[in-house]
Design brief:
The chain has 9 helices and 7 strands. By secondary structure, the chain is an alpha/beta fold. The strands form 2 sheets. A 5-stranded parallel sheet has the order 2-5-1-6-7, with helices on both faces. Helix 1 packs across helix 9, helix 2 runs parallel beside helix 5 and helix 4 crosses helix 8. The chain is globular, with a radius of gyration of 18 Å.
Length: 210
């Protein structure tokens, strides 16, 4: 019996993952029937690129797979403990709800030529743990405005070419995330965040989890 469920938030930087995550935590806390145990792991615990003591480092394929396996193993152990305690408990008292940022789709995009067998195995484990995926996107026409609105000081001295390259990279990565989501076995919905209606999007996610 599964005592666990959760959502994976995917999307490029500035797509709204952190804002939706905050809204999800707020909605979940307001629901008396929801799990009292909640695990929230930001992208710092699962992404390919990491700021390590001031230096940006990129995990290779095997390193990233190992990292993802460790996170999934943690969730599996929590579910196994709940099952060991027995079935006579409500979702609120014994269930676990998790939220992960940048996980399986980010791996697929970072290593597009990778053999699919291992990542499919990870996705199958996530599926068995009640995971569903939400891909947050921004319309191509709004990408530049979204990026500059988040960190305006960063863009003040950027040239037109630098800005254009950043926009193109955003759109290209987002397109690849969409493509990889269609290859994943995990149930996935795509939410456009142009309107920045974070609570509305969070409600859509909770509806998906029902």
């Amino acid at each position: 019996m599964s005592h666990i469920r959760g959502v994976i938030l995917e999307g490029f930087s500035h797509a709204g993952k952190t804002s939706v995550l905050k809204a999800l935590k707020k909605l979940h806390a307001q629901d008396d029937s929801s799990e009292r145990s909640i695990i929230v792991l930001s992208e710092d615990y699962s992404q390919v690129f990491n700021n390590v003591k001031g230096d940006f480092q990129r995990l290779n394929r095997n390193e990233h797979l190992k990292l993802l396996k460790e996170r999934i193993n943690m969730l599996r152990q929590l579910n196994e403990w709940a099952a060991y305690l027995g079935p006579d408990a409500s979702r609120a008292s014994r269930g676990v709800f998790f939220i992960l940022e940048r996980f399986h789709l980010s791996h697929r995009v970072a290593f597009p030529t990778d053999s699919s067998q291992e990542i499919e195995s990870l996705e199958n484990e996530l599926f068995n743990l009640g995971a569903k995926c939400v891909l947050l996107t921004v319309s191509s026409d709004n990408v530049e405005q979204r990026m500059q609105s988040r960190t305006p000081h960063v863009w003040e001295n950027k040239t037109f070419e630098e800005i254009r390259n950043s926009v193109d990279n955003f759109i290209q990565t987002q397109t690849e995330l969409h493509k990889q989501s269609s290859l994943s076995i995990l149930p996935t919905i795509e939410i456009n965040t142009d309107k920045k209606e974070w609570i509305t999007y969070a409600n859509q996610v909770m509806d998906l989890m029902s």
